[in-house]
Amino acid sequence: MATSTPAARTDGQPPPPPDGSAGKGGAGRDGAAGQSRRNILHRLDVRAVPYAFIAPFFLIFGAFGLYPLIYTFWISLHRVELSTMDMMEWRGLANFTELIDDDRFWNALTNTFTIGVISTVPQLLMALGLAHLLNYRLRGSTFFRVAVLTPYATSIAAAALVFTMLFERDFGMINWGLSFFGIENVDWENQKWPAQFAISAIVIWRWTGYNALLYLAAMQAIPRDLYEAAAIDGASRWQQFRQVTVPGISATIVFTIVLSTIGATQLFGEPLIFGQGPNGISGGADNQYQTLGLLLYEEGWKNYQMGRAATIAWAMFLILVLVFVLQRVVTGFKARRPARAAAAPQKKAESTPSATS
């Protein structure tokens, strides 16, 4: 059967299709519309879906993080009592200026700093050494790794009560052990430095294993080739630890320092239970171990001054922001030092005239 072919057009345009679909313009428009919808859905899938996945985090953070932070700052600008939270008296920055002039705030800040140093420095050093030992191939290594994490899983209340009995003045095991060295009973609770050392012991016991596992995970990420190369060069175990291990986990060390600083600033449960009663809120009879967390609790839930409590909370937040900024500055300075040291010989060589000139 013979078929007819469309004649070529003289205007240079392609001939119409033989099936007569040229007249079906509606179908062509529908296809174009469908393709447009698919393009829109594709762009939404690529651009909008990632935001939908992370939206729950921002919603939860906004409800339980950002909103309380902003509302706490709003309360800090007022005189508010716990019994009448709906009645606020505007004070502006008066709460902050009074806080700066308050000796109890500076005493609590000093105690927070000293307890933080006493607990953080030995804790991280012990964690570093413990992680170094666990990094070796040991029999039952899984058991030891779980064992060092057990104190972290223990309740703060239980740990504080046990250590309170250990540091008891008349019948405590610590004073019993010290008596063998001729040291008389130490009043751990009513003396400033003994009380702070006792509270720091609770913090060290709870958090050393947790930091040790962080260091252990970072150590296991260091390539073994570096240790083999150091051993070939004649480096001892101690030299390998200083020259390979510590630089290899420097980022984790900085992270644990920041984490411990945050924990020390928010220290509350250990000194509260160590006080064994009303003295726990005030940090002892002379506020000798009252931290910023205890001062916040005393102002808000004992003195019913929520405006002052909110001011202390914001002061703690600003201190943490300052610590974070200092950490970033120090980290950036250390990162620029190798680049400057590498560029110094090159600049010196360029500035030195050659012998042929």
UniProtKB/TrEMBL annotation:
Biased amino acid composition, Low complexity: 1-12
Region (Disordered): 1-33
InterPro entries referenced in this protein's UniProt entry, alphabetically: ABC_transporter_permease, MetI-like, MetI-like_sf
Membrane topology: Multi-pass membrane protein
Main subcellular location: membrane
Domain ABC transmembrane type-1 as annotated: residue spans: 109-327
Family membership noted in the UniProt record: Belongs to the binding-protein-dependent transport system permease family.
Protein name, UniProt field: ABC transporter permease
